[in-house]
Structure prediction request, 247 residues.
Amino acid sequence: MTAKPSLNQLAFFASRPHPCSYLSGRDTVNLFTDPDAPMDTAIYSRLADFGFRRSGSHIYRPRCPQCQACLPVRIPVNAFQPNRAQRRTLKANQDVQATPRSAAFNEEHFTLYRRYMASRHPGGSMDDPDPKRYLEFLSSPWSETLFVEFRLQGRLMAVSVLDVLAQGLSAVYTFFEPELSERSPGRHSVLWAIGEAQRRGLNYLYLGYWIAASPKMHYKQEYRPLELLHEGQWHHFGRGVALPKHE
Prediction:
């Protein structure tokens, strides 16, 4: 059996600069762990507290030489209190049933994923009709990953992909039925994940990266209190406290 390296023994590599997906006209560089090194949930849990994320089996975080716009964010779930809009979403979706399932290919999930991508990201890099690449993107052989089904009267409304870490849940991706967007399925899935972390006795829900200048990231600001990782430290931002802006 191959011994798993400790965090101090992990090798890290930098990608070549490539166009940023969120800020036009800029290049991004990712720092990623050795893809050939053995990985498990315990090591990944520690890396998450340093701002790393999972995409498939690869662990990475932005490390752009002249830009620090990407800030990892997490919700301390035990201090979270829903605001008025979030309470309305919870009330509107009381008839939605959530069922966590183990990560595995499911034709119904994949059909919804394809419909969501065609509506929201047509022609993008993730708008891929290959079932194998779909599953490789959302899961990995070593992670404890859940595919949470949200059903409305039996109809699949959304699927939220979550990693279970030692200290929290990590939101990997959510896709939903475009025709049901008025029910705010994305917000509903985050609120459900906050509740699930609380039920499991976990402390955090990790939401990935927040960029002040990216409209795609604005939704993350509505969850308070919120913690952001900046210059190696997690900073607490309570409701009513302005979030930092970065050029």
Q: What stands out?
A: The longest helix spans residues 185-199. The chain is about 20% helix and 30% strand. The mean pLDDT is 91.
